[in-house]
Amino acid sequence: MILTALQVEYDAVKGRLEDLTRDVEGGTIFERGRLPGTAWTVVLAQTGPGNDNAAVVTKHAHDLYRPRVLFFVGVAGGLKDGVGIGDVVIGERIYDYREKQSPDGGHYRPREWEAPWWLLQHVRHMAFGREIAGRVRVAPIASGNVVLDREDSELGDLLRGNYDDAVAIEMESAGVRRAAQIVGGIDTLTIRGISDKADGGKRRADAGGSQEIAAWSAAAVAVRILASLPPENGTPTLPDGGRVGGGSRAGSVSQELLGASAAGADESGRAKQGKPPAAPPPRRRQPLLSRIRIGRRAQPSRRTRATLMACGAVAVVAVLVAVLVAVLLKTTADSDTSDKNSTLESCSLSQARVKLHVAASIDLSKSLSDAARAYRPRRSPDGTCVKIEVSSVNSGTAMRALRQGWPEDDGPRPDVWSPAGSEWIDLARVSSAGRQLLPEGEPQSIVTSPLTIAMPEPMAQTMGWPEATIGWSDLAKWAEDPTHFWGEHGNKQWGALKLGKTNPDYSTSGLNATIGAFYAKTGTTGELSIRDVDSSANQAFVRNIEKSVVHYGDTTLTFLANLRAADDRGGREEVLKYISAVTVEESAVVAYNKGYPCGAYSYARGCERRGKPKTPLVSFYPKDSDPASDHPYVQLGGMSKAKQKVSDDFLSYLHSTDVYRKYFAPYGYRTYKNKVLPRTGIDQDHGALEAPQVKGYDAPDGKVLDRLQKVWANLRRRANVLVVIDTSKSMDDKVPGTGRTKMELLQQAEPALFGGFAATDRVGLWEFSNAANLGGKHHYLPLVDIGPMGEKLTDHRGLTRRAELKGEVNGLVPDGATGLYGTVDAAVDSMRKDYDPSAINAIVLLTDGRNEGVPDTPTLKDVLARIGSPDKRVRVFTVAYGSEADQQDANGRTVLEEIAAATGAHAYDAKDPKILSEVLTSVISNF
Asked: Which range is least confidently modeled, 90-99, 239-248, 463-472, 505-514?
């Protein structure tokens, strides 16, 4: 069961459920829905604020649904300096500091409840995704009926003296735990997103959108935990035999449960106005994350600025708290499906002593993870219980790790690898270490998806879709004069021809598009040779296609997410201004048109399913060579016999028709035999053609592919990039667990920042903080002028620009405030004055804070209007660095997301400074 106190938390949970139905019991609305990809049914209701309300509804939920697990999730105030907005706290124990009246006056009577041991053990060993606003920790939470808002207070002294290990404060969990204790048989867990510090700044934080951030993060973590729990046999059924809301009335709630003043009913037994009536809940859905990190339990430390206001502020805390009580009901149909398609006996999660680690491509990992949960742990013939765990790894990144034997720095080596395409296997086998890990032979596919040249429907119809066909040769011809292309077709208002294409060093669609272009020029579908790749004529052909690329990237997520943002913002006209065509898999087109804004079923923030776009994408299948993503299932060497048996069985399970229809077909994938089954939505209505006329090809071998990637580095569109780094005082903060400051970690990651640029790319560097610390004129300071990376700077001791950039970064010293808006405004203006129409003109903006502490700064609205102008488009790729970065929200987006979206770029998240190098690699893949 999921109960929420506030609408903002209710919406955050509801968006993660599907197939909702609604019941009304005693005036309370209950919604019941399915958590996609799992066997769980979730019942959702809203309680309103306060421990008493939460207790009433918890009792009613028990009486109606007999939930096995109950999650109490929402937002809370932070009590420790190390807890920031967007962090998530999982309640290790709940402290109740409820006030009681006595002859001597009011005093506090503390109680505490421990979270279920098995749930805590499960959570401590989970890997979450890093897409939430902050980090996840397991620690105590204080719950009461008064608000902690000032330091000089009785409650502040009480908490300091008795509960100094509590890291968050709220108003509902104690009521839920007390009710659960009385009724018995419910395992409860509190999950809270931090929306403000309990120091009097709540109103200011709420105005900045902190509640939305906290609610989104808490709901994401809660659903992630829930999805990782396989339902056990014997889960109680509904008391009415399955019909939600019928037949079984909730009993009354005792005075002991509610406290002396909170019975919640008048003399007639009817619920009082504003109190939850005597009845319980039903349903709802949505995606979530990939890899988070659970922080250590906060130790008693120096007192955070905090205290309280009295009971009169309960309404204020109401806006601060959400209650999420998750009632999890077993759906036996999923279990039947799992057993029917597996030859091995299932076993419980608690019995699973061995993990089979599957590293999957980013676009398939969520579907594969859902399928693995439904498959459940399995017992191999020797009796070993094996659990399958899926992680999300970029195909190119995994390939490089395998070439090196998968170093420890890259995390645990997988047992099974599923890149998006078999080409990555051949690339990994180029090294001896890769050959040792990867077996010979052709692996089987999980699913397949052909590559397409996708266009917004109005543009495609102008080109004759769906009857007409186009190919790589057409793109090369069009790119000869991209500026006037649409004008020649009678649509001058659409501007220049703009192509979206991902980086073939990281992305399968980018690699396949480059392979396809070479094949189109050679006019053959036979195996490509190194001589073909080195041919100057063939290279000129491919270079011509690259000329119209707006920017690259490590995944297609950037292009499709920006396309959907344009569609939401201004519909057709905005979409047609952003991009003309993008090379993506057919599955991405289908998923995009079904309402997945990133073109895939994804954990990532902003990728949650929504309504269909107003302007859909449609697919052209390249007529002169059409590669496909075959998503191979590669079993690495060194697996135990038990893992091998379960791995084989899992692949057979994935190949079954009902598993394919449930976990892969809804997102546009074809079967592992490249077939389109009826009623799967892979059709013209969703931008695809069921049986397109395409020309296949033989994949090049690993050495040819390796050569192709090296050659492409000299064929791609040049970059004209300004790197802008925040040097405010907060960059000198220590990063827990590293012994280094944020600036020192940035300096350590410098190779990832500048190492990916070619000698002919033009790059420059600014720092920014505030004018008083940078000479008194501007909030920014140019350090290295933009110019070719390989150029020698005669006024800098004969160093190349690359060496000078490295030296300047290593010499940065944090100080001052954060003049963000003025710096962004000036940087874009400077880049437009130095605009190169033949290059990708962009800014990489890295900051660990927000605009503050600087006078005479422009407003965000004015800055967005100026930088968003399509004239001389400069794309601003933003990096939120550190847990305190970019936490003010505006209309559901953070400031850095707004800046990136306004310029048609992408916002990156490095709130965990330890992953900065990985994030910077993704950022630089755009160039």
From this structure: 239-248
Q: pLDDT for 72-89, tens place per residue?
A: 889 988 888 778 888 899
Q: What is the pLDDT of residue 180?
A: 83
Measured distance between the N- and C-terminal CA atoms of the chain, rounded to whole angstroms = 47
Higher pLDDT, 249 or 500: 500
What is the C-alpha R_g of the chain? 28
Side chain identity, residue 865: A
Task: Say how far apart CA 812 and CA 800 lie, in whole Å.
Answer: 19
- Name the domain boundary from 645, 670, 688: 645
Q: What is the DSSP letter of 496?
A: S
Residues 730 and 855 in one domain: yes
C-alpha dihedral sign at 73, 75, 81, 82: positive
CA distance 34 to 332: 13
Same domain, 454 and 419: no
CB contact at 8 A, 620 and 452 = yes
The pLDDT of residue 684 is 94
749 and 741 Cβ atoms separated by less than 8 Å: no
DSSP E strands in 275-396: the ranges are 294-295, 327-330, 345-346, 354-360, 378-379, 385-392
Are 253 and 370 found together in one domain? no
Q: What's 133's domain CATH number?
A: 3.40.50.1580
In the three-class reduction of DSSP (H, G, I as helix; E, B as strand; rest coil), residue 115 is classed as coil
Domain assignment present for residue 653? The answer is no
How far is residue 352's CA from residue 388's CA, in Å, rounded to a whole number? 9
Considering the domain architecture, whether residues 291 and 355 belong to the same structural domain is answered as: no
Residues 423, 299 within the same domain = no
Please state, in angstroms and as integers, the Cα–Cα distance from residue 492 to each residue in 267, 480, 545, following that order: 74, 17, 21
Give 885-894 pLDDT, tens digit per residue.
776 554 456 8
| Alpha-carbon separation of residue 542 from 76, 491, 715, 810 (angstroms) | 54, 26, 7, 38
CB half-sphere exposure, 723, CA atoms < 13 A:
27
Q: How far apart are CA 881 and CA 847, in angstroms?
A: 6
For 506-595, strand residue ranges (E) read 581-585
What backbone torsions phi and psi does residue 572 show, to the nearest 5 degrees?
Answer: -55, -50
586-595 confidence digits (pLDDT tens): 999 999 999 9
CA distance linking residue 709 with residue 399, whole number of Å: 13
- Are 609 and 558 found together in one domain? yes
pLDDT digits (tens, 9 = 90+) for 415-437: 999 999 999 999 999 999 999 99
Task: Check residue 70 and give its pLDDT.
Answer: 87
Residue 91 lies in a domain: yes
Residues 434 and 490 in one domain: no
Q: Which of 65, 605, 145, 146 is nearest to 325 (CA)?
A: 65
In the structure encoding, which two tokens stand for residue 512, read together?
């396949």
Structural domains counted in the chain: 4
> What is the SS3 assignment for 99?
strand
CA-based nearest residue to 226, from 330, 321, 341, 140? 330
Domain that holds residue 99: 2-260+276-329
Q: Is the confidence at residue 129, as pLDDT, over 70?
A: no
The pLDDT, as a whole number, for residue 250 is 31
Q: How many CB atoms lie within 10 A of CB 241?
A: 9
Peptide bond into 283 cis (omega under 30): yes
Is it true that the peptide bond before 466 is cis, omega within 30 degrees of 0? yes
CATH of the domain at 575: 3.40.190
Q: How many CB atoms sit inside 10 A of residue 800's CB?
A: 16
In a domain, 267, yes or no: no
* Nearby residues of 411 by Cβ (< 8 Å), 6 or more positions away: 391
Q: Are both 67 and 112 inside the same structural domain?
A: yes
For the chain, what is the mean pLDDT?
80
Residue 650 domain-assigned? no
Do the beta carbons of residue 34 and residue 366 sit within 8 Å? no
Query: Is the per-residue pLDDT at 205 higher than 60?
Result: no
